[in-house]
Amino acid sequence: MLREIDKNLWVAEQPLKYFGLSVGTRMTVIRLTNGELVVISPIQIDEATIQQLNQIGDVTHIIAPNLYHYLFTSNFKTYYPKATLWAAPGLKSKIPELPIDQVIKENKNSFLNEIQYLFFDGFRTFGLSGPDLLNECVFFHIQSRTLVLTDTAYHFDESFPLITQLAARVIGGYKTLSPSLLEKFSTREKDKVKQSVTKILAWDFERVIVAHGSIIENNGKQRFREGYEWFLDLSLNTTV
Prior knowledge:
Blueprint: E1 3-6, E2 9-14, E3 17-18, E4 21-22, E5 25-31, E6 36-40, H1 47-56, E7 58-64, H2 73-79, E8 84-87, H3 91-94, E9 102-103, E10 115-119, E11 124-127, E12 130-133, E13 137-141, E14 146-148, H4 162-171, H5 181-186, H6 190-201, E15 207-209, H7 220-232
Parallel strand pairs: 6-7, 7-8, 8-9, 14-15
Antiparallel strand pairs: 1-2, 2-5, 3-4, 5-6, 10-13, 11-12, 13-14
Helix pairs in contact: 6-7
């Protein structure tokens, strides 16, 4: 079910386990001024969600924002075959059977004229086979001052199962907006990450939506900066 969190901004969540931990997952829906809906990181769709989406706008853009968040895009596309499926660079070669229509190109996609976005360069995630490129595109919804992240930061709290809380306390992401130690040890190109973080901190955001964890409604920019100061082992105060 969709949950409205601001004007022209909705989210929907579903359960998800990763490495045996209940981390949940979340998709974000943004309505543009022309009524088109941009769906970022789709989850498993159901009839109730379809009805809600059709009531609020026209699903025109479906986005697989990185090389890991694509599991439900094909199913979503079957319900909205006329929508354009946009994918992070490299996803087509990784999963050839995905019905990808367009590859996201930085500063070249006019459908995002109400949404700023950039690629989070240099960041690596820790997958089933070890450190792996993420190629994540992150988004800033200007109207609601909302930053939308997928796997570049987590924010777990007491609303999650105890075992997930304990794991997040150990490896990172418990009541902080940050990646985990797994990403910290996997990521070597810290200079590229710093450049991406600096660009993100130039955006005027207050809220942060993450795919895994609880949404941060207030002081999002400060929380993001603090999380990446830990990740990069340096101060980012001068970038704000």
